[in-house]
Every structure is written in C-alpha cells, then in structure tokens.
Amino acid sequence: MTGNELKELLDTSPAECHRRLMKEYGRYVYAIVFNKLRSCGTKEDIEECFCDVFTDIFIKFEYNEKYVNDIKGYIGTVAKHNAIDRFRRLSAANSHNAYTDEEGMAELVSDFSVDERVDSSELRRILLQKIKELGEPDTTILIQKFYYNRKSSEIAKTVSMTASSVRSRCTRAMEKLRVKLAEVGITK
C-alpha cells in the first residue's frame, strides 16, 4: 500500500482502510512489538501495544511525500517507537528501587556462587541438547510448554495438531526425555 492509497482510503472509507492495513501490515507490526516486549510484557501488553500502533497510524497520519511509494517504513517506525515506549513503562513498573545506606551495604553478603552458576548452566545445556535429540514435533512441544509456559491449545495451533494430541505427545516426550537424562546421570 502506498501513501496515496492510504490517504484516499482514509478519506473515503476508514473501515476499509483499517481492514487493509491490518491485513497487509498486521504480522509485520506484531513481530516488531513482540520482539521488543517479550522480555518484560504479558500477552495482553503486546496486544495492547499492537492496537495502539494502528490507532496512532489512523489518528496521527499526515500525508508526506516520503510515503508516496510505500508506507512500510512509516508503519515500522510507529511500531518501533510505541514498543520502545511501552517497554520503558513496563520496565519502570517492574523495577523495584529500595533505599540503602552505606552501613547497611557493608553488611550484605553475596550469595552468588560461581560453582552453582556453572553447574546450572551446564545442566541447562545438557537438557536442551537432550530435548533437541527427541526430534520434531516433540522438541517444539516441550520448549513451548515448559520454557514459554504456553497452553496445549496454543501449542496445537503452531504444530497443526489437536490439544489432546499435544498433551499425549508431551507426556510421551517427557518419558523419553527422562530416559535420555538418566543415561547421562541426571535423575531429578
């Protein structure tokens, strides 16, 4: 869609303009927003930011010669700026600032253990390796379920299965994984 087409559609039929923009650029905008907010936002935060991007496009769009051929750059910029603003708000809301005096700081003892950190990262590496050895779609199902905390119905859509099939595959994959981990000495 070009800037001229967008301007014409906004003037003649805002509903049609909205539908075409969502159809043509929806995935593009969602990818930008998701990649920025996945570390600090919930699914609802991502969806809300996604809607805000298209709201801003409709409310604030002013025709400019830069958008004669393609408005993808404009839409990408609006999406990126909205996602960054939302990221900052969510990060500020999630951070906890506490007052500490210098005497109190001296009493703090670090509970950071290099050995524990190395052990846990090695365990994580082995676990991911064994999950990948299971093959598809078991790898995808386990990673989506336990790393991304997705529901069976959500996973089912991505792997083109039913939710009950995903649950069955997950149970079987966990048994296979348990055996593979026991082979390398990991039992719990």
Automatic annotation (TrEMBL):
<dbReference type="InterPro" id="IPR039425">
    <property type="entry name" value="RNA_pol_sigma-70-like"/>
</dbReference>
<keyword id="KW-0238">DNA-binding</keyword>
<dbReference type="GO" id="GO:0016987">
    <property type="term" value="F:sigma factor activity"/>
</dbReference>
<dbReference type="GO" id="GO:0006352">
    <property type="term" value="P:DNA-templated transcription initiation"/>
</dbReference>
<dbReference type="InterPro" id="IPR036388">
    <property type="entry name" value="WH-like_DNA-bd_sf"/>
</dbReference>
<dbReference type="InterPro" id="IPR014284">
    <property type="entry name" value="RNA_pol_sigma-70_dom"/>
</dbReference>
<keyword id="KW-0804">Transcription</keyword>
<dbReference type="InterPro" id="IPR013324">
    <property type="entry name" value="RNA_pol_sigma_r3/r4-like"/>
</dbReference>
<keyword id="KW-0805">Transcription regulation</keyword>
<comment type="similarity">
    <text>Belongs to the sigma-70 factor family. ECF subfamily.</text>
</comment>
<keyword id="KW-0731">Sigma factor</keyword>
<dbReference type="GO" id="GO:0003677">
    <property type="term" value="F:DNA binding"/>
</dbReference>
<dbReference type="InterPro" id="IPR013325">
    <property type="entry name" value="RNA_pol_sigma_r2"/>
</dbReference>
<protein>
    <submittedName>
        <fullName>RNA polymerase sigma-70 factor, ECF subfamily</fullName>
    </submittedName>
</protein>
